[in-house]
Amino acid sequence: MRTTYYIALSDASFFLNFSKIIFQRAKLLQIIYPTEEFQIHTFDRLIDEVSVLQDRSVHLKKRIEDLFYVLLNRAFTGDLTASWREAHMKKLLQEMEWQSSYLEKMK
Hints:
The protein is 88% helix and 0% strand. It is built from four helices and no strands. The chain is elongated, with a radius of gyration of 37 Å. By secondary structure, the chain is mainly α.
């Protein structure tokens, strides 16, 4: 009869042996270490790319703000709604006809 204690010990020994095999195989792996010069060059290149992205981000933020203020100005001066009305005149006329017919039915 196997006791729980014996099973736990045999399970532990299995995992210890298994980890030994994995460690032995891992020691055979050849790992390529980049030179310090390559690491510095790569790091500098990445920093330059981040700098370019930050500059582009600032430019795009400015552009979005400009577009927002153009839209805001057009909305307050009525240009935005006037151009929308012109583009959707047919639909507006249909809605006005429907509203007038509905009001007449309400009388």
